[in-house]
Write a structure and sequence with these properties.
It is a single chain. With about 120 residues, this protein is of the alpha+beta class. The protein is about 20% helix and about 35% strand. A 4-stranded antiparallel beta sheet has the order 2-5-1-6. The protein has a two-stranded antiparallel ribbon with strand order 3-4. A hairpin with a 5-residue loop joins strand 3 and strand 4.
Length: about 120
């Protein structure tokens, strides 16, 4: 069966903080409900913890790093799931149940296998 990435965009907050305990509970419940199709995934810390890497001049060029995200946006990449589903319709049905879809958005993409 094909794999689909469910990429979650939402508020750029630290979901480990106590005020997000209900959201964490909602994600745990989703993880249990979708266990049969989840093949991987993770939540991400806020963009303030990010390091952006660029290579100037193409392959073999200088590596340049900077603190934080590459672009500032209202919604940030907050996590992802990897689903194994029969088709896109099934993947979308599962993505609609991810708590991040309720106040943000979830982008669903087929995964391109690398051998």
């Amino acid at each position: 069966m094909p794999l689909y990435a469910a990429i979650i965009y939402g508020a750029d907050v630290d979901y480990t903080e106590p005020q997000y305990a209900q959201t964490t509970t909602d994600y745990m419940a989703f993880g249990e409900a979708a266990a049969a199709v989840i093949r991987g995934g993770a939540g991400l810390y806020p963009t303030s913890t990010a390091t952006t890497v660029k290579v100037t001049g193409g392959k073999g060029g200088d590596v340049v790093t900077s603190d934080g995200p590459y672009a500032e946006t209202k919604d940030a990449l907050t996590g992802f799931y990897l689903f194994e589903c029969a088709d896109l319709d099934e993947a979308v049905r599962w993505a609609a149940q991810i708590p991040g879809a309720w106040d943000g958005s979830v982008e669903v993409r087929p995964v391109l296998p690398f051998g």
